[in-house]
């Protein structure tokens, strides 16, 4: 290993250790952000605070400076950059707002923030190896939007419908030749591939990185509906045409997904891979009570040894010797 590679690995290790040490503070900050309509987004191993304001995400500019510079003082770097922008005639006040955000200790204070377009304007003034990857990351996470009130309720209903359609499909295809976990995984990829122009589940997870939760948990109503229709059509086609075998069934899944995709295109709709992403729906918010993955918290636990021939659980007092 050459010296340059060794230095790079050493720097990555240092950053990871620092990131790990700050985990309790990040957790506290994340909870405070969530309580105030925000969240932490992750670029590489850098946490970026952002808050929902006026219908879009606004990002902490001090946080953005950390991965975009090699300075140990992001606040000073941002302060110097503001002066530089001002000298160059850029009216950064037009796209920078002071919005309340929590510090590492949980205290709320005004923080310079910009929306996606504002951050991209600022990044143009920075020459750093992370500039291009950061812009790509920002374009991805910038598509994540808030859902409130009825919209969230409808998302939860559509998420439950997609889950039901997925489970029904995978139960049916067992009788037509898809049996092993790998074969079921192939069907999952085929379902996505037709609808998302060749993208597999892993491809989509990589493209939509930065947030927890499964793919459907982050989908909007239209995307969920498109996926549900694709699953239902595959099930209907397999049963109606008596399609048997892994390859014929996965081919049918891709063809059906492509058909739904063409329908979206003809209707002038956004393509599924470009549809906005949402805060992940917690499983408890959309899972029906009879879902096999739902924990039945209300079900009383059986008491070991009670009327089951088990061991005697009588509690006896033990007196310490004098």
Quick recap of the structure?
The chain is an alpha+beta fold. The protein has helices spanning 3-21, 23-35, 61-65, 74-87, 116-123, 131-141, 150-172, 181-195, 201-207, 221-240, 246-266, 283-286; strands at 38-43, 46-53, 56-60, 97-102, 108-115, 144-145, 277-278.
Task: Please tell me about this protein's structure.
The radius of gyration is 26 Å and the shape is elongated. The strands form two sheets. Strands 1-2-3-5-4 form a five-stranded antiparallel β-sheet, with helices on both faces. Strands 6-7 form a two-stranded parallel ribbon. 50% of the residues lie in helices and 11% in strands. About 7% of the residues have low confidence.
Q: Give start-end ranges of low-pLDDT stretches.
A: 297-318
Total helix count? 12
Q: How many distinct beta strands?
A: 7
User: What's the story with the biggest beta sheet?
Assistant: 5 strands, antiparallel
Count of the domains: 2
State the share of residues found in helices, binned by percent. 40-55%
Order of helices and strands: HHEEEHHEEHHEHHHHHEH
Protein structure class: alpha+beta
Termini Cα gap = 68 Å
Shape by Cα distribution = elongated
């Amino acid at each position: 290993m050459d010296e340059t590679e060794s230095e790079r690995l050493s720097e990555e290790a240092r950053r990871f250790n620092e990131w790990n040490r700050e985990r309790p503070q990040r957790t506290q900050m994340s909870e405070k952000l969530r309580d105030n309509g925000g969240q932490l987004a992750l670029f590489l191993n850098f946490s970026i605070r952002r808050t929902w304001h006026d219908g879009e995400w606004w990002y902490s500019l001090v946080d953005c400076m950390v991965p975009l510079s090699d300075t140990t003082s992001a606040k000073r770097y941002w302060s110097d950059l503001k002066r530089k922008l001002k000298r160059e005639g850029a009216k950064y006040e037009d796209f920078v707002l002071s919005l309340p955000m929590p510090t590492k200790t949980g205290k709320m204070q005004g923080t310079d923030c910009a929306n996606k377009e504002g951050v991209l304007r600022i990044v143009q003034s920075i020459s750093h190896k992370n500039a291009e990857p950061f812009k790509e990351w920002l374009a991805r996470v910038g598509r994540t939007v808030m859902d409130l009130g009825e919209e969230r309720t409808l998302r939860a209903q559509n998420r439950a419908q997609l889950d039901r359609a997925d489970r029904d499909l995978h139960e049916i295809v067992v009788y037509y030749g898809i049996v092993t976990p790998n074969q079921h995984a192939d069907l999952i990829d085929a379902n996505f591939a037709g609808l998302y122009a060749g993208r597999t589940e892993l491809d989509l997870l990589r493209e939509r990185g930065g947030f927890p939760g499964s793919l459907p948990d982050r989908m909007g109503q239209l995307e969920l509906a498109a996926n549900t229709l694709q699953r239902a059509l595959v099930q209907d086609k397999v049963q109606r045409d008596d399609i048997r075998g892994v390859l014929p069934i996965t081919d049918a899944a891709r063809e059906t997904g492509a058909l739904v995709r063409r329908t979206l295109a003809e209707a002038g709709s956004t393509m599924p891979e470009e549809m906005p992403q949402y805060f992940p729906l917690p499983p408890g918010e959309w899972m029906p009570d009879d879902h096999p993955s739902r924990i039945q918290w209300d079900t009383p636990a059986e008491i070991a040894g009670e009327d089951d021939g088990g061991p005697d659980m009588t509690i006896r007092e033990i007196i310490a010797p004098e």
